[in-house]
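Supplementary Note 3. Input sequence used for the single-chain structure prediction.
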Amino acid sequence: MNKDEFMNNEPEDVQGDSLQQDDQSADASHSSYKVPKIADKQTKYHLSGMYQNWFLDYASYVILERAVPDIYDGLKPVQRRILHSMKRLDDGRYNKVANIVGHTMQFHPHGDASIGDALVQLGQKDLLIDCQGNWGNILTGDGAAAPRYIEARLSKFALDTVFNPKTTEWKLSYDGRNKEPISLPVKFPLLLAQGVEGIAVGLNSKILPHNFNELLDACIAHLKGEEFELFPDFQTGGSIDVSRYNDGERGGAVKVRAKISKVDNKTLAITEIPYGSNTTKLIESIIKASEKGKIKIRKVDDNTSANVEILVHLQAGASSDKTIDALYAFTDCEISISPNCCVIHDKKPRFLRVSDMLRISCDHTMNLLELELRIQKGEMEEQLFFTSLEKIFIENRIYKDKGFEDSTTQDAVVAHIDKRLEPFKKDFIREVTREDILKLLEIKMMRITKFDSDKADEILINLEKKIKEVQYELDHLVDYTIFWYESLKNKYGKNYPRKTEIRNFETIVATKVVEANEKLYVNYEEGFIGTGLKKDEFICNCSDMDDIIIFFKDGKYKVVKVADKLFVGKNILYVNVFRKNDRRTVYNVVYKHGKTGPYYIKRFAVNGITRDKEYDVTQGAAGSKIMYFTSNPNAEAEVIRVTLKPKPRLTKLVFEKDFSDIAIKGRQSQGNILTKNEIYKIALKHKGGSTLGGREVWFDRDVLRLNYDKRGEYLGEFHSEDQILIISSKGEYYMSNFDLTNHYEKDILVIEKFHADKTWSLVLFDADQQYYYLKRFQLETTQKPQNILGENPESKLILLSDQDYPRFEVVFGGHDAHRETLVVDADEFIGVKSFKAKGKRLTTFNVEKVNELEPLRFKEPVENYTSNAQEETEEDLTGGDENGDENENGNGGPEPESSTVEVSETEKPKTSKPKKKTETSPDQDILPPVGEEISDNRKIIDEITGQMTLF
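The predicted structure, written as discrete structure tokens, is reproduced below.
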């Protein structure tokens, strides 16, 4: 409700004793209350009237006069008054900040502290104010020195773009003694360049800063009618994910990250920090995360001065890649910012998009330039008019006329001159006024005697020429505005390169990067699990964010949140950390269906279930229990030996069963019948390999991360000992495993599965010899970066080929451009040597460029008879949900051993005869059985190759 609406309501009668009235009306209903009229003199003594009047005034004042910037000049009132004061003080020299603050108080009577803070913030943005002295450090959060010690003056950019008294609207200051600008005539999108943050009554404004050059490019694009996009850029650098920026509208968000690099395997370096943070806050958040056990670090060193340098030293055994992700997940190394573009437009707060704000600013700039041109044109026309008038007055010697000399009054003189000018009036651009004639009378005799007619003509010609130029610019105002922006970019753009890298961030799952800061224990007898049961059996390391899966002997299982001590139930069979959507951990189970039912064998994965809800491995029949159980982190399939209880006519009491013959199905599947005879015991004969084969890996260049989700470039199928080769454009190479937490730099030239026998051909420019060289080599396994270009960092990688018989074309340049192109067969030119070898010089002549040609020879393919017998993909085997494929271990590192639980039974065997046909439940989610086909394939392969298969 606005102020007018309050004033239009009927007043409540207020008698002398208001307290007595309040007592009498205490029983009145709320609907009968009448709002007092603010104009009533007695209302100021009524509490509700005071709130109506004062609150609306206060809210309006804070919004319009304190916290929210104006859309046209991009400044809050205090900032505008500071710049106006600095312009009044400007003489090209530095002024003490204390003097500027005191001068500003003529327009802003809110104390020196608020003015000083606002001035320091303006100076730290490094755009409008040229600072001298200790102005603090936005990187460390250190404050500026006292105002008496630091100095400031307006920057050249501010003088060029912010001020013009001829186009400025003015108003009286708060005390009426001075004039101050209503809005400064800023001819630049200053609001978007500097950004702003303010909190008013009932609303707030948070506009992020943008890049200087990109703003000018966007203005030019808008004037040309082209589309444009704007994204934030911060002085502190770092990187930003703008996928949800939403053009700066409310509801949007951006993620900002620090720049973290690896100095070595035990040290991380933070060289850029997120916007809105500083090194002090960042280090505090890192220490806090370390104290909570989220990350494992020894110490943090802060070497920040002009540039950020925070060194994070890791504990022994901590993964540097995993720690980087943990820093993003648990510290201020990653911050989410929600922009809210609230500005004052037409004396009202409005919420706009960034693109709309830029268009308004650009159109306003064009209007200001037009106004300046019209003022300039008017001034030149006025100068042309009076110069012409003066020339006629002097050349025609009007001041020597008898009528002029005989005139006794001023009016007579004016009338005489006006009459003599009558023949020339048709050539003037405007009418001759009395003031113009009086101005002619003020010309001194010395000037008349030295009057130069030719020089006057030259001045008139130049003025006419300039007027035509200004008129042309007015007629082509859009082109003139574009030229204005281009001139600003050419003059100042080199000082403002983009500092914040725009990229897509991968989603970091906190539970996957948190350090195992707790130990999990179990009390099998009493049915408790937890991290506080120090005297009970140790299970594994875990974090305080993990989920725990528990299997019971009766076939029940559930997932619970890790706790200090938690009762889950007796008869615990197996306990471990649960990873959601882990389709590579497969459970191999043999269970008895009911008290008298058959024995089933099944393999299944638990991808995702509801926490604290109970599920069943069996079909839920009373008396069911698990006879054999193993947990296999990479879908290993063992061979078991089954011993039956003797009974009449049962000749074979012992047989073996290979779990690889059993398909991996859904967790609710019934399984296949193992036997209908009573089992005496089940024992492990020998362990087997994974039935899922290798892990298929992709590399997403947008986020520079590996993934299993088929995003980006396919690298191949990886087994536990396989490695990834990375070659950078700087000539450095190294190998890594295929852990999803690995971090890679953006200058990757080659990333692929490493093959030790692959031959590489390299053309390089040797900075020591200043010649082009060719060398061929095979890479050695190393996790430490090695340079294939040599020791000189100035050497350049020209071409890198993995062809078996590559060919290169050398094109000559300079004074050797006339020479015929040289074609080099690399295989014939040089043999395969170490990557550290210098290579062979291609030529001593000047080279313009080197191109790779299509090879003429190819290596004959070698037929490979050794292959994996099982070709089913991971999706075909798991039968689970295809959304997500995360794995606790799937990182190319050592795989944990399978957990095996054997259960024996001594009950008497039954006389039922086993059937050959496998029975299955009609409602289970089963993939086609592959066991028999795999077994047949394995026999064929063994017969042909005489070798054992991988599985």
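Residues 1-31, 864-897, 904-951 have pLDDT under 50 and may be disordered. The CA atoms of residues 230 and 834 lie 49 Å apart.
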